[in-house]
Amino acid sequence: MATRIRLQRHGKKNKAFFHIVAADSRSKRDGKFIEKIGTYNPNTNPATIDINFNAALKWVQVGAEMTETARAIMSYKGVLYKNHLLNGVKKGALTADQVEEKFNQWLADKDSKITGKQDNLAKNAAADKAARMKAEVDANVARAKAIEEKNTPEVEEVAAEEVATEEAATEAEESTEVAAEEVVAEEVVAEEAPAEEPAPEEVPAPAEEPATETPEEVPATEEAATEAPAADDASESTEETTEA
Q1: Alpha carbons 163 and 108: distance in angstroms, whole number
Q2: Rounded to two decimals, what is the model's pTM?
Q3: DSSP, residue by residue, 206-229
């Protein structure tokens, strides 16, 4: 049975992370495995690798095959280098102390490189953020300037309209003041002119009193009535004379 060190996919879409496993080469990628020896998360920068160094070294020493990605991870973590040094001990080229010394030196250099990379990434991120903020500020300034230039004619038109309105209001006030002065002048002239005397009213003539019969006229009427038979007697005497 051939053993293969490979990656087993986990996580969700576009956020995958992997388990590093030693499994039978005939099993499916995400199928059964013999032993889990670490995890690999490529979503961070630099990638996060957590590995069981001794278990990985054991499988490499027994001749387990590796996929390309698994080999790169083993090299990055120093498993392949440690295996190379241990093979030197088997051949008598190195001692165990020399292997530990060389490997520790290699780990120190690797850690310094990783730390320098992280520092550079942090500096680049800060510089990129500052550049983006500056670009955003410049864009906001340019946008405000463009809006100001665009609105300048409108402001001038509004100012002209305000001036025209003020002039019209001033003219209206002046015309109102002139009209008021004319009214006051007419009132003054009217007060200074002599008042016309009203025409004397015609005194109505006294109405004629109706004639009232006095108590004395009543006997006169009676006397006239008494004298009337006398006249008749005279006329009769004349007629008799004529006949004779």
Answers
A1: 80
A2: 0.51
A3: PPPPPP---TTHHHHHHHHHHHHH
